[in-house]
Design goal:
Strand content: 15-25%
Shape: globular
Radius of gyration: 21 Å
Distance between the termini: 51 Å
Largest sheet: 7 strands, parallel
């Protein structure tokens, strides 16, 4: 049984990774400061005999004994990482240093969850690992983009200088259950807007593209990457190479939710990349991996997850409407009626 540390373990990806590692028979320590991670994401794992949760910020050193480290700690959506950009950079850079130092002390193997954002607004399409990227170093997204680029630099310097066993994966757009409903990411935004019956917001003309990978496929790739021989470090792209426009994604969400939402347009945010598509040839060769879950199937599973809170809320208000005493001014029933109109 391996002892495995997952930083950011209560986040969207981290919670799925913890769940999968426990299923593999490993002993898992989930570390999170709960800035964007949520206790509810790992609540179903708390009673597992091989699972432990620790509240800790990776910008401070951590002293534990582990065999492997998955470093996922860092806000990953623009809304969250731009809220405190200085802290985002600290998390990416100081967090990487602290986890690398921990791996060095205990001779652990360590995997860095990097991002497709290291390519910026790319001039090479699809993006290959050898492409150095086109990133604005002083823009509103730079705290995350450059933070992750610096973290990659640190990983490879520790590998060259200290012979540390490292793995680096570059994660492209991933979606699935346990995404934060208010994280500002396009999939969660569209699903929440559609379920509420609100207009779906497209930034720009909607022709910019993304490649969407379902979370189960991504976790499989991360675990396979960690199991590769020590002489294979990456960086390696992980994502779905099938490209969709943002407008196409909106159409799928409206269709699958049965929503009557309309499309509206707003200006494109600063430094938002126009194209994003991974070349995953290296992943196919190195870990025999390719994503299996098609977009519509993955969206069905994700919509089912997001629909539950709405169904619960509707049931509560329906119960209140049915059981509230009749009043002369009808206020009790008006509360429920106003909710359904919202």
């Amino acid at each position: 049984m391996k002892k495995i540390l997952v930083t950011g373990g209560a986040g969207f990806l981290g919670s799925h990774l913890c769940e999968r590692l426990l299923a593999e028979g490993d002993d898992v320590l989930c570390v999170d400061n709960f800035f964007t991670g949520r206790k509810g994401n790992v609540a179903h794992l708390i009673d597992h005999p091989h699972f432990e949760v620790m509240r800790h910020d990776v910008t401070f050193p951590l002293y534990v004994e582990v065999d492997e480290i998955y470093n996922l700690a860092c806000p990953a959506s623009p809304i969250h990482y731009q809220f405190d950009p200085v802290q985002t950079t600290k998390t990416a850079v100081h967090g990487a240093i602290n986890m690398l130092d921990l791996a060095r002390r205990v001779k652990a193997k360590i995997l860095q969850a990097s991002t497709s954002e290291v390519y910026g607004d790319p001039l090479v399409h699809p993006q290959v690992e050898s492409y150095w990227g086109r990133v604005n170093p002083v823009g509103v997204r730079s705290c995350y983009d450059e933070g992750k680029r610096c973290a990659e630099t640190l990983f490879f310097d520790y590998w060259r200088q200290h012979k540390l066993r490292i793995k680096v994966v570059r994660i492209f757009n991933t979606y699935g259950p346990r995404m934060h409903p208010d994280d500002g990411r396009v999939v969660s935004n569209f699903i929440v807007q559609a379920l509420k019956g609100e207009d779906i917001t497209l930034y720009g003309d909607g022709h910019q593209t993304r490649s969407f990978c379902y979370v189960d496929d991504l976790i499989e790739a991360m675990i396979r990457m960690m199991a590769t021989p020590d002489d294979f470090t990456g960086p390696m792209n992980i994502g779905n190479p099938r490209e969709f426009t943002i407008a196409e994604l909106a159409d799928h969400v409206i269709s699958l939710t049965g929503s009557k939402s309309k499309l509206t347009h707003k200006p494109l945010p600063s430094d938002d990349p126009r194209q994003r598509q991974p070349d995953i040839s290296l992943a196919g060769d190195a870990i025999d991996w390719m994503p299996l879950i098609e977009l519509r199937e993955g969206l069905k599973r994700t919509i089912a997850y997001f629909r539950k809170p709405f169904e619960t809320e509707e049931a509560v208000f329906a119960h209140l409407a049915a059981t509230a005493p009749h009043k002369a001014n009808g206020k009790s029933h008006k509360i429920a009626a106003d909710h359904h109109a919202a």
